[in-house]
Amino acid sequence: MTISVVGGSSIGTSVEGLAEKVGTMIAQLGCVLVCGGLGGAMEAAAKGAQKAGGITIGILPGKEKDDANPHIDIALPTSIGYARNTIVACSADIIVALPGSYGTNSEICYGLVYSRPVIDLGNWNIDGMTHAKNVEDAREKIEQIIKKLQQS
User: Domains in the chain, please, with CATH?
Assistant: First the structure.
């Protein structure tokens, strides 16, 4: 299973900690973490996943693999800028949305348009998302979704 983590590139320490916990949880579930591959929430989530022994994939907006943050195992440069948000969303079985801005919003919307379950840890209040109170609650919801996906 792949889980995309979407969130802001400019974040404070509370979101950084949240993102790292989400990344750790994804690795503990045995899932592959997908993200935009750059800084902020993407880097913190990848760091958490990598520290927990998980695999991380970064879908980069530019053409250089070296632009990836140091916690990306597989860097995929796209040269398509923000259009890469479609790939981040659609390559996921599940999306976890952290606080962010327009780019994060676009990834959430692409996920919903293409029928990906989106877990809201960022108070987005967008119809179709599943709100989680914290990382533990998100984990329970993700485990339920994985179970359903494996049965279908």
Answer: 2-91+114-151 (3.40.50.450)
